[in-house]
Write a structure and sequence with these properties.
It comes from Mongoliibacter ruber. Keywords: Carboxypeptidase, Hydrolase, Protease, Signal. Helix content is about 25%, strand content about 25%. By secondary structure, the protein is of the alpha+beta class. It has two domains: about 325 residues, Beta-lactamase (3-Layer(aba) Sandwich); about 80 residues, Beta Barrel (Lipocalin), CATH 2.40.128. A hairpin with a 2-residue loop joins β18 and β19. α2 crosses α6 and α2 packs across α7. The relative contact order is 0.17.
């Protein structure tokens, strides 16, 4: 689910493309030991080659209260990677002549604005113009409550279109919620059953299903937010994301899913080619993730404090998947470390020594920062010996002090440099820079 302070996954970096003769599992273990010892990240990771898992590792805690550690069978919420499963189900419906890419939305939900002009293809490829309901400030007031199809459909239908269907692409979870309901109508089964019958059981994915309330006694992971101390995150009720983000799984199951998908065990080669055809940055339930002169297909996800990624390099027959449930560290850096290792580089182990700073020094940065044309106000306050930031309508986040009046929030790749004498804060993220003034 998307916020302004975005969780960004970007593999498009300049690295050596030499294949590793063997992966250094001892160094990977040392890396994940460091993350665990410094409470930087909790989760599991898996690497596959030619369809076989060659490395898997759990680190941190699946349940911090009971100190239960994750293993390769621990189930996590995978967020938007669920869209790949939904897309597979749609193409299965198309291959059974239950739908076509040209089927219009008004055959199912005529109350949605522009429904007569929106096709199944538009929904799959985020070209519908339908407002993303998770972008609404109201979303966080109800996301933990069970909702019916009728209630959510009214929420979606009440928003005006943000552009004419088919004219461009803009990511919207609403598209895949609508696709979930369409699938339920054409298959005459609940989405939960379809995932199990048409994907999980045929592939032997024993730890993949549509989630419910998190079941700790069934080896499911909770997620945590770091605000001074680690706090248990709220749980999105899975009736809301459904095919947009309600599946739980493991990295090893995700790798098996991707391998099977590209071996055409789930859909035909023609359907797979259509699914992975990229327009304006989006396929039909799949994303292309470049790695210098290579490319992989997969998806990323975020729901509550879970962060996930799964990627398959077709030419190399290599897969990487990770799911995290607590992070004081950018999960993208884990991907970079693993890919560096696999593709023949020798990445350095990180250092987590934090620069010390007094409470008096921190107090000079406290305040509310904004700018004309910038849609949010960034509030900065102190809790003990740490600054906490919070954007309007969003969750609070801890700010690590890096020295010289500069702070960071690694999870989102966010850097904030303060100039207290000028009441100024420069915020940088994903190549963008914003100059925000402290309100007096």
């Amino acid at each position: 689910m998307k916020n302004l302070i975005t969780f960004v996954i970007c593999f498009a970096i300049c690295l050596s493309t030499l294949m590793a003769q063997s992966i250094d599992t001892q160094k990977l273990d040392a890396y994940f030991d460091l993350l665990e010892q410094n409470e930087k990240l909790s989760g599991t990771v898996a690497i596959s080659e030619k369809g076989k898992v060659i490395y898997t590792r759990g680190f941190g805690y699946a349940d911090k209260q009971s100190k239960r550690k994750p293993d390769e069978n621990t189930k996590f919420r995978i967020g938007s990677i669920s869209k790949m499963f939904t897309s597979v189900l749609v193409f299965q419906a198309i291959e059974e002549n239950k739908l076509s890419l040209n089927t219009k939305l008004d055959q199912f939900f005529p109350e949605v604005p522009n429904a007569s002009s929106i096709s199944i293809d538009d929904l799959l490829s985020h070209r519908s113009g339908i407002f993303n309901l998770t972008n609404s400030p109201e979303y966080l007031t109800y996301h933990t409550q069970a909702k019916t199809r009728e209630e959510l459909l009214k929420t979606i239908a009440d928003y005006e279109s943000i552009f004419e269907p088919g004219t461009k692409a803009d990511y919207s979870n609403s598209n895949y919620l609508l696709l979930s309901w369409i699938l339920e109508d054409v298959f005459e089964k609940p989405y939960t059953e379809m995932v199990d019958i048409y994907i999980a059981k045929p592939l032997g994915l024993k730890n993949t299903k549509v989630g419910t309330k998190i079941l700790g006694d069934q080896n499911e992971a909770f997620s945590y937010n770091l605000i001074g101390n680690w706090e248990l995150s709220q749980e999105t009720d899975m009736s809301i994301p459904l095919g947009a983000g309600a599946i739980v799984s493991t990295p090893t199951d995700l790798l098996k899913f991707l391998q099977s998908l590209f071996e055409q065990q789930l859909i035909s080669g023609e359907s797979l080619e259509t699914m992975t055809d990229i327009r304006d940055g989006f396929g039909r339930g799949a994303l292309v993730i470049p790695f210098k002169d290579k490319k992989s297909f997969g998806h990323t996800g975020g729901i509550d404090e879970f962060r996930s990624m799964a990627s398959y390099f077709l030419e190399e027959d290599f897969g990487f998947a990770m799911i995290a449930n607590a992070q004081d560290y950018n999960p993208n850096d884990v991907a970079l470390f693993v890919l560096n290792s696999y593709f023949g580089n020798d990445p350095e182990l990180p250092s987590f020594e934090e620069v010390s700073v007094s409470e008096e020094e921190l107090d000079q940065f406290i305040g509310e920062y904004g700018a004309e044309g910038f849609p949010l106000t960034i509030s900065v306050k102190r809790e003990g010996k740490r600054l906490i930031g919070q954007a309007t309508g969003q969750g609070a986040f801890p700010m690590r002090y890096d020295g010289e009046n500069t702070f960071s929030f690694a999870q989102a790749g966010l850097v904030m440099e303060f100039f207290p004498e000028d009441d100024l804060m420069v915020m940088k993220q994903s190549g963008m820079e914003f100059k925000l003034t402290r309100n007096k």
